[in-house]
Each structure stands twice: as structure tokens, then as C-alpha cells.
Design goal:
about 325 residues; five-stranded antiparallel sheet; 12 helices; about 40% helix
Amino acid sequence: MKPEYELVSFHIIEKFNTSSLVTWTYPSISDALKQKLQQTCLLDKAHKSDFIYHRLDKQWIYIWECFKEQKCYALALVTKSFNPNKYRQFGSHLCSIYEINYKPIELVKVFLGAFTNGSYKVQQNGTQCNVYFNESKMIQNETFEELVNAFDVEIILIFNALLLKKRIFVYHTDFSSLLKHIEVMSRLIDVKLRDPNEYLFPCVRNINFELKGKTFFIAGVVDKNINIKPDAYDLFVNLQNSSIKISPNSKDIFQMTKWHKEIALLLTNAENTEKMTDLYTKTSNLLSNLKSFAEASPTEEGQSMVTLDALRAKKLPAAMENFLFNLAVAENIMML
């Protein structure tokens, strides 16, 4: 197996009176990361989460919180990539090993094995076994169906906003539920087309600071008192009451076409077990078709660009022409 170079570090956080403190780190920790961990881990035993994740700049922090009678601690794994499915099992194994005798040095051996070999050793039924990282980036079916049940065909609005690289806020007062659903949303588009590392912000508290200058994002929000004005988003998804609001300034972007209706039916078809594969294929085919409209541009160093004249020459329905125009802009292949 290939080395797991995306791993950065792991940390143990423990509760002392009312404070959470980082008590073990390997191989190192920055002041910013230490502050983040101490501010977000072990805050409330009554509302504990077994598995959560945060983002700090370009790194992802996966956290497992364990409230046990003999010890209350959290384990944080820092990586360079967003892939909760890939690291969920690894962190659970680290917690199980740690709870045998609460010696962090045992975790170093496992971490180094994963870092150098892409696999690690665990005890299963008294036998030592090699466990390999699961590279799957597919969504969890149960949470996906929850999303479909909540929004039905309106799920196409979320898909469309991602495809066109728009600004999406997602609200829920329960952080774990918020994380589960935005993870599913991020998988509606193949990661080869829209990399979550570029646009996903699991929980924002200071919108003006954390999202300053960004024109494409999914941003999670848990604070019910936060004030988000309509000109700050294109789509507002309220998981709490299963509603989606389109900003008045963005309504033209969300005109539905025959292609969108096909995608909506695909996503809501409970009998299709290959819907995500089919969705990725249809999206890829659409982009290939759009790029076939492009012509070499003398003003863009010979780069093939789509022109408005080329789009109009196809004599497409107005809604489809508008959609493809916005998609070409999102792909940076539209001659403006």
C-alpha cells in the first residue's frame, strides 16, 4: 500500500475542571491548532458527539470525544484532506488502543505505521491484523436518504448551486447533524470536479472574516442568532425545518431545465442503487458537451473558450442557454 502522507498529526485533549487542555501531541502542534482544539473539544458532556470534524486553514481536524467514568478525553487527528469516511474507522481504532492502558506512546506506533505504509495493525479476536485505509469517498446512504426525504426534488437546488460554484449556507442547531448533511451535499458533485478542500467550511461563526472574498462555498451555521443577509448567499438550506431559500438576487441562476428535472428524478429514485455513479456520469457528459462548444481564443493564449455567439448558435431553450452560460463561467471557459 502507498504511504498515507495526508496524515499530519494526532493529539489527546483532556478535561480539567472547566478547561480542555491538550495533554499529548505527535509530532507537533501550532498555537492556532492548540487554541482550536481547546475551544472545540469536550465542551458539553450532555451534548457529546462521538465523531465531529473542523477545518483550520487547509487542514482538517477529525475529533472523537469519549466520556468514560475512568477518563474523559478527546482524540484529534489532523490531515491534509477532507474524507470523513476514510478516517472515521482509523480514529475509532486509535481510541480503542488508547483505552487499553491510556498510554499515548502506543498510538505513535500505529500512526507511524499508517503514515509510512498506508496500513496499521490492530488486535481482532486475539489476532493481530493489518487494516488498510478505505479510499472510498462515497456518501453514507442513510444520511443521503434523510436529505432526499427532507427536500425531495428540491435537492436539485443544492446540486445546481455546487455545480455553478455558488454561495451556500447550511443551518442546523445540532452540530453532528449539520456535519453529516454537509458531507453528503459535498458528494453530490464528483470531487474531481469540485474539491471540498477548496469550498467546504463545516462551521463558521464570523462570516465576514472566515468567508471574506469567497464566491464559492458551503458554510455550516449552528448559531440561530447569526444574521445572514440575502446578498451574502445564493442558497440558504435550513435543515432544521427542511426548507431552501434562494436569494432574490440569484433567482435567474436557478432556472430549471429538462436536464435538471432528469437529475432530480435520478436523485429521488429510491430503486436506483447506482444513482451516484449515474449522477457523476451525467455531469461529466454535460461538461464534455459544453466544452465541445469552445473555440480557440486569440486573447487567452490560445485557450479554448465558449462564446455567447457559439451558445446562441445551438438554438437551445432560453433556460438551458442561461444554465450553460453560468456553467461555462463557473468552469472559467466563458468568453465575457
